[in-house]
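An example makes the point: we print one protein in full, the chain in one-letter code, the fold tokenised, without further comment:
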Amino acid sequence: MGHPSLPVDLEVVFLTGNNRPIRRGSVLWLTVTALLMGMNVLLSLSVFSIPVPGGHLYFCDAVINTAAILLDPAAAFVVGGIGSFLGDFFFYPAPMFVSLFSHGLQAVIVSVLSRRLFPQKPVLASSVAAAVGAAVMTAGYTLGRAYVYSTPEYAILKLPFEILQAGFGAVVSILLLYPMHLKEAFHRLLREH
């Protein structure tokens, strides 16, 4: 099964919890990844944000965490990192590399931790993973803003809003995936494919 030089866990996507994994690079993998990346870019629009001192509060973290819990780390990076990079590139390019690093790392960490922590308790694993990802994103943006804008004061001014954005994204993604059964619906849809 698969390419002889790649370990199975690097070649197979962990989209499903069932016995039917989806291969990285397949049409389904590309479609789901592109759809979620497009949602991330769309939520980078100021139209879908709340104005706060020094900028806007965006809702893209909810999509990034949801994608990271549903998809493998590579797809999560594409959705979180590259999607955020493109959103900034199109609408506000100054922090685009900060977004690539911060949201990309956030997505990979959430994806890996949600699979490896507490295998018998997926809600707990996903919640802890989203909290760790939120902390990583907040730290990355705070340090990145201090560098990009050459003023730590600006980064500190935005810190409470970064925490709010990260926390909101983590809570919304967990609510969507578990109490609202998005994860179950996603797996059911994939089984029908």
About this structure: The chain has a mean pLDDT of 86. The domain at 27-47+56-192 is CATH 1.10.1760.20 (Arp2/3 complex 21 kDa subunit ARPC3).
